[in-house]
Specification:
transport, 8 helices, ATP binding, binds adenosine-5'-triphosphate, about 220 residues, ABC_transpr_LolD-like, alpha/beta, about 35% helix, Putative ABC transport system ATP-binding protein, Rossmann fold, 9 strands, ATP-binding
């Protein structure tokens, strides 16, 4: 499969009077790191929700990892998302009453396909990823006791465990200063293992870290 994501003639509106997205074409080649930028409110999170199958468009085609999402039931879309998409949220969405190790393991506990891609013991895989992200000293700590930068690394670990082929990151660096932002992007690169990455941000200065850069303003006819 040469394309991880292909969107064609997609139209989406939350209410009929206000179209948010009208995208003739958008392609994410397999294994490439794509940077998508657009100003606040331009529809970046909405687009990610269409690609991850949380929302469905009123018109058009959304193909993800060889599946046409608009033809799948919501249950099948949930399964594809859980098995094949690692998601890094702007606010991390970690579970506050669980430890660091428990948070990292969640996708494998919830989705057998993610667990099945790990050859050995889950506990050891959590520890291996935690070591690479310099979190191993904190594995048994409640996640709320970690700094913001450490919580961000937990969010990376949870997204990549069980090797989902597509990783989506929604403005995960917006609260970081420049040095920590570069550290975050370098760490994400190190643990991607060939996955396709879609990273969205309003901050165009991040573009040099990626293989291709797309502008939502240019792609989206509803914004023109
Ligand atoms: N659930 C919703 N119901 C109605 N309108 C919504 C909903 N979610 C978002 N919108 C509207 O859709 C537009 C696009 O929002 P979206 O969150 O996708 O933009 P964004 O580019 O991700 O913004 P930001 O960078 O600020 O996170 C905005 O005008 C927003 O108010």
């Amino acid at each position: 499969m040469t394309e991880a994501v292909r969107i064609e003639n997609v139209h989406f509106a939350y209410t009929p009077a206000k179209p948010i997205l009208s995208i003739p074409s958008l392609v994410l080649p397999t294994g490439l790191r794509t940077f998508l930028h657009g100003p606040s409110g331009s529809g970046k999170t909405t687009l990610l929700s269409l690609i991850s199958g949380v929302l469905t468009p009123q018109q058009g085609s959304v193909q993800v990892l060889g599946q046409e999402l608009t033809r799948l039931s919501s249950g099948k879309r949930d399964t594809l998302r859980g098995a094949s998409i690692g998601y890094i949220f702007q606010t991390f969405n970690l579970i506050p009453y669980l430890t660091v190790a428990e948070n990292i393991a969640i996708p494998c506990r919830l989705h057998p396909e993610r667990r099945a891609r790990i050859a050995g013991n889950l506990h050891e895989e959590v520890a291996r990823i935690a070591r690479r992200l310099d979190l191993h000293a904190h594995l048994d700590a409640p996640v709320t006791r970690l700094s913001t930068g450490q919580q961000q690394r937990v969010a990376i670990a949870r997204a990549v465990i069980g090797s989902p082929p597509l990783i989506i990151a929604d403005e995960p660096t917006s609260s970081l200063d420049t040095d920590r932002r570069d550290d975050f992007l370098n760490l994400l690169d190190e643990v991607l293992q060939g996955a396709t990455l879609l990273f969205v941000s309003h901050d165009l200065s991040l573009a040099s870290h990626f293989d291709q850069t797309l502008s939502l303003r240019t792609l989206n006819e509803a914004a023109q």
